[in-house]
Amino acid sequence: MKFPSRQHASAPGITGTVRMDRRLGNVLRRSHPGDIAVIDYLDLDRSSAEALIAHRVAAVVNSAPFISGRFPNLGPELLASAGVVLLDDVGPEVFSRLKDGARVRIHEDTVYVGDNRVASGRRLELEDVQHLMDDAREGLTTQLQSLTHNTTEFLRREQDLLLHGKGVPELRTKIAGRPVVVVVRDFEHENELQRIRSYIKEQHPVLVAADAGADSLLSAGLRPDLLVLGEGGLARPGGVEARVVSDKALTRSREVLLHADSSDRLVGADRLDRLGVRAHRIAAGGATEDIALLVADIKGASLIVTVGTHATLDEFLDRHRSGLASTFLTRLRVGPRLVDARSVPPLYAGRVRLWQLAVVLLAGLVALGAAIVTTPVGEEWATEIWTLLKELIDTIRGLVT
Q1: CA dihedral 50, 332, 338, 189 (to 10 degrees)
Q2: Is residue 36 pLDDT above 80, yes or no?
Q3: Domains in the chain, please, with CATH?
């Protein structure tokens, strides 16, 4: 998929309007199709890349490397596959040499304003990105060693919640003994929700949303039973992560659980007061989606189906670099009950309906009748039944006449 860009009449390369800020969320709010985004984002993740693709930018100029080599982040490959021009490692000076709204041209590895060269870096094609990704995977050992240390520390701090389920407030939503679907607005969540629509319709699971997963449920025509809301979901709408919850989702969710950090600090909670939303509160470290899974497990869910979460090691590392320990330990705790939404269609055949049972029963009776008729005794029975039917018909005719 190629995105539109304006071609300079005489000079080679692509031209477009600069949308520039060190914070990607600010860039996206001002972007239009064909613009050139200038950002400062080391190791661009998949969620941010999806946001850039949704705004149909023609090129992304990054003052930092798209892939540092620490781990195989997924964003650059997604952008390159979509046909977005990638130019990285141009240096922080680009923010002083360019102005937001200016017209620029990118040719090979250089950015021009008119005929003046203002920045140069590394032009990445899809093959280059894939090669860098392969090299980055060699650094996973270091990341996993760091994960081991962080996991020990996180378990020490949050053992009451992880091991004993302490700290979860009483909820109106009844979860015990029921299946639960936890929705996160991330990795292909829309497709996964669509694939399990029949499961949701027939099994009536508890619908739990983590942050903007509530908006995903509303977009699918479903109402969240429980919204687990963290600081990221309370930020002002328009953030890069697409995790900010809309006012509609806040007021439409049947119940809201606020996720504060371990010190019980939560920035942005006054937004709920303005909307008149009353919420429960839980103080714990880790990612909000992990808290949603833990709450479902602690409250006795019979099964937990996850939508938009991270199934592969690359996805796992890409999205939760600062929260790997939380996600890792949460998955260990809820593992026996956990099913990825992508696995539901092959495993779930659907509820058996009465008409299907009737068809099977009728087919069985026909087969049994055919088997009986083909035996000597069956032929005798069939003859006697036919004779009785004829006599009954003759008797009815006689009464009528």
Answers
A1: -10
A2: yes
A3: 14-137 (3.50.30.10), 140-347 (no CATH)
